[in-house]
């Protein structure tokens, strides 16, 4: 049920489309493989990024809020860190020139975010070490306000291909959330 243009023939590798089976010397009893894609498969792969993000958001809206999930509760239940940065609700600010500090990671350890724009890197610093990540290696950034403390967000940086690779940061001041996303995902803001 697939049109020929959506089919590929493989025999000792992908075959050039202009060659016939006789020309490539396929003998009787040889194993060949035909692979194909429906037009829907192709369109699903080529879905524009924005549409894919909207689908992810719609899916997230159906789920229980992140801050109620068990893995996040154990960190959030520790309460706000003593040295958390002040938050300004309803305001968007550009990134400060100093590192964002006073936040927790998923194990409840202190974490600081340093945006090295001249090197196009995000430095994630803990007591143990500092990870220096190229901005382009971060696949996505998700965030959600913390229930009962909407002036702070929990935020995740996707460092690999799946959700399992999220690096979670808790108690991010809300005024910096959009600037962080825009900076990491490449939507530069000039103020």
Automatic annotation (TrEMBL):
GO terms for molecular function: cadherin binding; RNA binding. It comes from the Eukaryota. Signal peptide: none annotated. Residues 74-185 form the UBFD1 PH-like C-terminal domain. This is UBFD1 protein. It comes from Alectura lathami (Australian brush turkey).
């Amino acid at each position: 049920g697939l049109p020929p243009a959506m089919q590929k023939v493989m025999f000792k590798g992908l075959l050039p489309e202009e060659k016939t089976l006789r020309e490539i010397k396929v003998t009787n009893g040889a194993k060949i493989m035909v692979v194909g894609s429906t037009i829907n498969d192709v369109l699903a792969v080529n879905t524009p990024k924005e549409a894919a993000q909207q689908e992810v958001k719609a899916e997230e809206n159906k789920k229980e809020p992140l801050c109620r999930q068990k893995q996040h509760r154990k960190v959030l239940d520790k309460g706000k860190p003593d040295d958390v940065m002040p938050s300004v609700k309803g305001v968007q600010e550009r990134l400060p020139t100093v590192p964002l500090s006073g936040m927790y990671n998923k194990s409840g350890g202190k974490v600081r975010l340093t945006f090295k724009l001249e090197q196009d890197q995000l430095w994630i610093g803990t007591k143990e070490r500092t990870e220096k990540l190229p901005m382009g290696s971060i696949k996505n950034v998700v965030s959600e306000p913390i229930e009962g403390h909407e002036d702070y967000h929990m935020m995740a940086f996707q460092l690999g291909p799946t959700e399992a690779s999220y690096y979670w940061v808790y108690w991010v001041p809300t005024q910096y959330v959009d600037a962080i996303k825009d900076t990491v995902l490449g939507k530069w803001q000039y103020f």
